[in-house]
Amino acid sequence: MHSDQPLWTPSQASIEAQPLTAFMALCSKRHRVHFADVDAFHAWSVADRASFWSDLWDFCGIVGDKGARALVDDGPMTQARFFPDASLNFAENLLRKTGSDDAIVSRGEDKVSSRLSWDALAALVSRLQQALVALGIGEGDRVAAMMPNLPETVALMLATASLGAIWSSCSPDFGEQGVLDRFGQISPKLFIACDGYWYNGKRQDVSEKVKAVSDRLGIPVLVIPYAGEADALVSKLADGRTLPDFIAPFEAQALSFRRLPFSHPLYILFSSGTTGVPKCIVHSAGGTLVQHLKEHVLHCGLKDGDRLFYFTTCGWMMWNWLATGLAAGVTLCLYDGSPFYPDGSVLFDFAQAERFTVFGTSAKYIDAVRKSGLMPKETHDLSALRVMTSTGSPLSPEGFTFVYDGIKSDIQLASISGGTDIVACFVLGNPLKPVWRGEIQGPGLALAMDVWDDEGRPIRGEKGELVCTKAFPSMPIMFWNDPDGARYHAAYFDRFDNIWCHGDFAEWTAHGGLIIHGRSDATLNPGGVRIGTAEIYNQVEQMEEVAEALCIGQDWDDDVRVVLFVRLASGVSLDDDLVKAIRTRIRTGASPRHVPAKIIAVADIPRTKSGKIVELAVRDVVHGRSVKNKEALANPEALDLYADLEDLRA
Description:
21 helices
């Protein structure tokens, strides 16, 4: 089914203009090595990670003291140390640029739009920094934010990081318990919240939730005005103040940055929490900075003055990834609200108006645009757009085709995959390589990625576990409240000794790219053969009758049978003809093994706050097991649709 022609091939002019081409030339000259192509360069970057990361530090002009050593790695992966002698400050690296050009351009669904120049951003961060110091916040303290994706959120993160304090955020659509499950574990010194937000044309009230959370945490609350209710909300809080009041006593002055070790904690991110209380994953300032600069500059080709957009909330690691774009001198384009309000053109309108260079989104969004019949290629001027990235779930081959047919024909489409665990990507785009339908272009530079079978042997052209066999800078420093590292070890190193096993079911392609077939813990095993759920979704979600699908393996008759749940398009019912059509589509498009034993129509499909469907939670409900943490879900009530189903008793 893969065509023998790529969907896109970079032009010679594009290749010559890429920062990656310049960086390869620098490494070649410094180390007197000739690289036949970018694959040879990748091999070198893995073999000599110390040189790679040291050269990247210089190439990107990282501010700080690099120190003598780039890598000490002579023991277990978890004990590797990158730049053990270095000192730097994350915020200092993001605020290097000055002047009146845009640092941040922001749009909200309520028609709010704003711009912050580099100088204005630095001035705001300066006043916030002084206010945080006055509150007694310093090195190692936690600051927790339940915020929309706003310029103020970025500024608050930068002020926190400038002091060596630790930032943690979630989005304001989390329920009270979901917020407490996260922030309650890390004992923050300050809780930051908005006074409401907009979604789908409606103002969402958060006042009761903010009061309940602040009462439980028992700490000061900083309220950011967004929905016109800030003063009313503060009046209900035991110790609250609005942003204008918080910074009123302070004038902007030259920023001071506390330079700390490379491995000093920067962020606490949370796992989705669908299988228990969320894990608190601690990421370092240096590791996050170098990994993101590598991805932005080398893999996305971003340069000073480019414009970077990612459709994300502050509860997803792509927000952290987006924010680091400032370190490459790019303008951040922020959007908060529904991507389909008032209609599906809203993000493309933004892209046209602000001339996005990189448009980042989710596979689900691309599929929704395709199904809505929109053709941005014909309606919008996207001439500035060079790269479109997609993540959150595997992008279907049809999604790839649609981007070229419906959005832009001359574009690098980078399907990317990594996660909260590494606050970065394992596999992603490469601007020097062609794009093949349905394939991620390749592994990240200096990442020793492979696909292993159950016995721990590397495999090609077969499906197996995605692993990383050597240490990399954005491995978590630790999990919070995991003093002996047992939970950290269990999360990534239990499967194979001293090898990071990521939990993705993957396969190398003939072009040196990768296909992710879904999470390996959600892999189906009918008859003992492993099948990725993405292979089934790629078939059924192309059918106009099916809005979306969710697939699980049900324990049945000493084996596992495949059960497919479908949410149907408006006005469609699941009759015998449609069941037959779905089965035929899967049989011919995937294989007879993929054909579900049961196909059941459901009114809704449960998903996390960042839009990922939760196969494991549904599997637990079907098997009568309790789901530990419904607070992690955007629509927990949907789980009830899967309990005690008559159709699954026979």
